[in-house]
Structure formats: C-alpha cells, structure tokens
Specification:
Length: 280
C-alpha cells in the first residue's frame, strides 16, 4: 500500500506513485459482479430506518433514491454515488452500513432520469443510460440529496462517496458548490471527462473546496497510475487537503465482500473512510 497526503500548499507527500496505461472506459461493463456486497459487517441491534424516495432536483426531473437514517440526526451525513450499475443492492447495503454507524445516507439513482423510477434486475442494459448521463444532471441530483440530508439539520457536515464512475463523480462534486465536508472516490478515473459536459477531475482541482480522499487499486489496467500521480500532484499544487492511497496488487472494484484476497485492502479503506468522516 502506498499513501500520499497533503494538507495544502507546501505539504510533502509520503510517497510518489508509479505508472501504468490502458483505457478505463473499455472496462466499464466489467467492473463489478452482480452478487457483490460491501465488505463491512452489519452492526447487530443498530436501529435504522430505510425508505425509497423521490428527489426533485429543480430541472423538472424526478430522481429515485434510497435513504437510510440512523440515530444521529445532526451528525455527519453522506451521499452515495453508484458505479455503472446505478442504484444496485450494493449501494443500498452501503447506505445501511453508514446509517448503522449514525451517518444518515442517501444513495442516488442516476438512471431514473432516462430509465424511470423503477427497480431493475441484473439484465438491465445500463450502458445506454451511462452514455446519456450529464455532468449537470449529476450535479443537480447530488445537490438535491444534500438538501434532503440537511432539511432538518442545516449545518450538519455532508460528504459524498462514489465508486468507479461514481468515484469520479464524487470528486467532481467538490467543485460544484455543495458546501461539502469532503469527497471520497474509490477507483475513479481522475483524468477522464465523464460524464460528458465536465472537465476531468484533475482539471478541476483549483475549484475544489473541501478535502479529497482517493482510494485506488494498484493493479487496475483501466486507470494508469501515472494518472493517479498526476491527480495527487495537481491537488498538492492547488492546496487542496487530500489523501491518495494506492493498494498494491488490488484490482478494480476490490472493495467487495467476495474479494477475500483483498480483505486487508478493503478493511484499511473502510477505516480511512470512517476516519475521514470523523467517526473516530
């Protein structure tokens, strides 16, 4: 595992990161298993409330979402941005795991804009809907989720977390004026402009207004490690508080209960998430 941290201009990273190359977009259709689950143990006896809800971002859209509410109504909260699966069971379970720890959570369904508000099975053809996503749509959906989480506690800290495509989307939200406490991206591509209509995250670091956590796979042919290093360098130069962690040998989508070989990486990543949002 390699870690690079920065507290702003002039901070010295603990470690630089090596290089690889390939095309991230080609891997989008194969970046998950349908039977994936978060590698986080449920808390027995935790009292949470869950519900499906509809967000209204203000542009006329109606966006499906899943909310899990815990026992700390003024504590930190988090918006979950999925990968190309959209609002898959994995992300509902992840929202539950946060809520069990007192972190109210809303997982957003990107594809409600183009596929409607409905449950979808494993045969859902998501790529046509990925291609129809827009940066402004993700921004508005995130803003609506943040507003919902702050509806009863306007000053609570709100974070955004995302995975793969959602990881890149999460980093983008740091520059979108949501007054966030921090953003967390698992194996997003920092150098890809996706969805269309936005610069790549690495090109927006000068706009980022909150701390950034990047949790990256060291054996991910779709995300060259020189792009990860370029992101870290850009964050450093822009004075953005950040932590970039590369898990040597871990593949894309390692954060999965089935990936027993990478259990240590998953455990460390989760501990960093917990610390980042202030649960320690």
């Amino acid at each position: 595992m390699r870690v690079a941290r920065g507290q702003g201009r002039g901070a010295t990273p603990r470690m630089a990161i090596a290089d690889r190359a390939d095309d991230w977009c080609k891997l989008l259709p194969m970046c998950f298993d349908h039977d994936s689950h978060p590698p986080i143990a449920p808390i027995r006896g935790a009292s949470i409330r869950t519900e499906s809800l509809v967000l209204e971002p203000g542009d006329g859209a109606r966006v499906g979402a899943y909310r899990a509410t815990g026992s700390a109504p003024e504590g930190p909260a988090i918006v979950v941005l999925p990968d190309v699966r959209g609002l898959h069971r994995f992300y509902r379970e992840l929202a539950d795991r946060f809520a069990e720890r007192g972190v109210d959570s809303i997982a957003v369904d990107y594809f409600a804009r183009t596929a409607g508000i409905t449950d979808r099975d494993n045969d859902f053809e998501y790529m046509p809907h990925v291609e129809q996503m827009t940066a402004d749509g993700v921004r508005l959906d995130t803003a609506a989720a943040v507003e919902a989480l702050r509806s009863s506690a306007p000053t609570r800290p709100v974070f955004v977390i995302g995975f793969c495509l959602g990881g890149s989307n999460a980093w983008q939200q740091a520059a979108n004026g949501h007054d966030l406490a921090g953003v967390i991206g698992f194996y997003g591509h920092p150098g890809r402009a996706r969805p269309p209509g936005a610069p790549a995250p690495v090109d927006r670091v000068g706009e980022m207004a909150c701390p950034v956590l990047a949790l990256m796979a060291g054996d991910d042919p779709g995300i060259p490690l020189d792009e990860v290093e370029r992101f870290r360098t850009a964050l450093e130069a822009a004075g953005v508080e950040h932590e970039v962690v590369v898990y040597d040998g871990a593949p894309h989508s390692f954060f999965d209960r089935k990936q027993e070989t990478y259990a240590d990486a998953s455990s460390d990543a989760w501990e960093r998430v917990v610390e980042f949002i202030g649960l320690r």
